[in-house]
Amino acid sequence: IYIHFAYIYTWWCFGEGLVDFWVDRWLQDDPLCQLYCRQDSPQFLVAEFFIGDKWNEAKLRLWLLQPIVLQVLQVQFDPSKKDSMVWSPSANGLFSVSTAWETVRKRKNISLVSGLIWNTIVPIKLSFFVWRLLHNLLPLEENLQQKRFKSVEGR
After folding, report:
1. Residue 123 in 3-state DSSP?
2. Pick from 37, 12, 6, 15: which is nearest to 27 by CA?
3. Residue 2 predicted with pLDDT over 60
4. How far is the C-alpha of 13 from the C-alpha of 5, rounded, in Å?
5. Residue 86's closest CA among 146, 150, 6?
6. How far apart are CA 2 and CA 70, in angstroms?
7. What is the pLDDT of residue 18?
8. Spatial separation of the C-alpha atoms in residues 22 and 34, rounded to whole Å
9. CB-CB contact of 93 with 22 (8 Å)
10. What does the alpha-carbon distance between residue 120 and residue 6 come to, in Å, rounded to a whole number?
11. Mean local confidence (pLDDT), 89-108
12. In 3D, which of 20, 60, 27 has the Cα closest to residue 43?
């Protein structure tokens, strides 16, 4: 879970291009292999598509569809710099525990029902009762029988 969490919030800003062309996230939100990957795609580093400080457009066209080639050609790079991983939740691109924590605890869209159940006006006991009722978790006779408890009436 933590690896997936870190993965979805990081991407590569490359210079020298020692980043996996197909697998690493450097062009869009998804790696190229999820957007477009052929059966015969060998493993490449991004740097293998450079000629000096420019993209090798002919090689890109061999492996990618035209719209993706056009996107790649827009990406700026400086081969004299090191590749760096960017942590997207922070303003400066650097990872910090505080930005990770804020990202983890961000609230998701709350449904109307959840908003009515879980609010400061409703007592917490009642909130839990209604939640258990909606999720069929109250210890009613039928629920207990489904969970293989002996019937109270059949003593």
Report:
1. coil
2. 12
3. no
4. 19
5. 6
6. 34
7. 92
8. 8
9. no
10. 33
11. 80
12. 20
